[in-house]
Design brief:
With 341 residues, the protein is of the alpha/beta class. Helices cover 38% and strands 18% of the residues. The two termini are 30 Å apart. Bound molecules: guanosine-5'-monophosphate and manganese (II) ion. Manganese (II) ion (MN) binds next to loops. Guanosine-5'-monophosphate binds next to strand 11 and strand 12.
């Protein structure tokens, strides 16, 4: 399961045996795994002698900006012309930590028109079929663990530098909730152990990612927890944050990260949701989390234009915040059996 198959490995080896112009792309609103995997791969392919850049659809939260190579990332929303010319000139495009080209927002068209060969490395369910090499494995903890496997398949773990190790460690750590989600295997720990041996500064990474609370983040967390609604009949909790509340507490990108998980710490709650109003984009962004069998991937796909994993997914709504939560609550009746198991 875990390793890249031999056929894909030989295709990748052949591609990387000549100098390529490489573009590496994370999904929109990138998280630790998206930035960790793209930057980790960036350092690796540059060290092999390829020309390479990371192009992100939009900016990242502050707690990721310390990562080695972050300052080189081209942001499509800000530097559209430069980003487009790199995409047009690319011979090889890696798409990392997402399963469908719609996950890159306004970059989608440029990617659909690109002439380059595509390689996907991803662990989300139901990958789309656009790449020459699709290394997809939903059992993997993170795309960063898969980038490690990718490098291993190319017989190059000896080429993992401290920069690469720091990037890959970060994504594995964030996507596993610090090595506690069910996707964390003994193999994940072995990979992480090797990354520490190769220079990943585990303590410093934990501090940089998690001990970066700002007053705005703590105020927003307080507001979110106060807004929490518990639906005992459905073992469900949901939280709302309106644009007015975000403005009041001086919201900055990344401030809402992880808040959705609080609901699951309540006894018997197996489904937790956060609805975050975004007036600028005219949408409500939604995060879904579950414990056990209940698939938030299916729920997000069926009702909120989204998807993800069985226990963590995202989506959005074009309705108002009130309409969205009302529709959400109305849907729960259809899932009563699954939520009551
Ligand atoms: P989060 O709630 O932390 O933003 O995302 C949880 C998981 O769901 C991540 O793996 C993320 O890639 C995925 N996800 C988040 N938003 C969307 C979305 O709008 N569409 C899809 N297909 N997946 C999403
Ligand atoms: Mn991921």
């Amino acid at each position: 399961m875990a390793a890249m198959n031999l056929e894909d490995t030989s295709v990748v080896k052949a591609l990387l045996s000549t100098t390529q112009k490489i573009v590496i792309i994370p999904h929109k609103n990138p998280d630790g795994d998206a930035i960790g995997s793209t930057l980790g791969l960036l350092h690796y392919v540059k060290n092999l002698g390829h020309e390479a850049v990371v192009i992100a659809p939009n900016d990242s939260p502050k707690f990721l900006k310390w990562m080695p190579g972050f300052e080189e990332i081209i942001i499509f929303e800000k530097d559209t012309l430069s980003a487009k010319s790199h995409i047009d000139a690319a011979t090889l495009i890696f798409t990392l930590d997402f399963n469908h080209l719609s996950r890159v927002g306004s970059m989608q068209k440029s990617l659909e028109e690109a002439e380059a060969t595509f390689i996907m490395i991803d662990h989300h369910q139901e990958p789309a079929d656009y790449a020459k090499v699709t290394y997809s494995d939903v059992s993997m903890s993170s795309t960063c663990e898969m980038v490690y496997n990718f490098i291993e398949a190319l017989d190059s773990t000896s080429k993992i530098t401290a920069n690469i190790a720091n990037c890959l460690y970060t994504g594995i750590m964030t996507d596993t909730g610090s090595f506690k989600y069910s996707s964390t295997t003994s193999r994940t720990h072995r990979v992480v152990a090797d990354l520490i041996d190769k220079g990943a500064e585990n303590l410093a990474i934990h501090n940089r990612v998690f001990d970066t609370n700002s007053p705005s983040r703590l105020h927003i967390l307080g507001c979110a927890l106060k807004n929490m609604v518990i639906l005992e009949d459905f073992n469900t909790v949901y939280i709302t944050l309106s644009q007015a509340e975000l403005d009041q507490f001086n919201f900055k990108k990344g401030d809402t990260e992880g808040i959705v998980n609080y609901g699951l710490t309540l006894d018997s709650i197996i489904f937790a949701v956060i609805f975050i109003e975004n007036k600028e984009e005219g949408i409500v962004k939604i995060s879904f989390r579950s414990q056990g069998e209940f698939s938030v991937n299916e729920f997000a796909r069926a009702h909120f234009q989204g998807g993800g994993h069985t226990n963590a997914a995202g989506g959005k709504s074009d309705e108002t915040l009130q309409e969205t939560t009302a529709r959400f609550v109305g849907l729960l009746d259809n899932y009563k059996d699954k939520l009551k198991e």
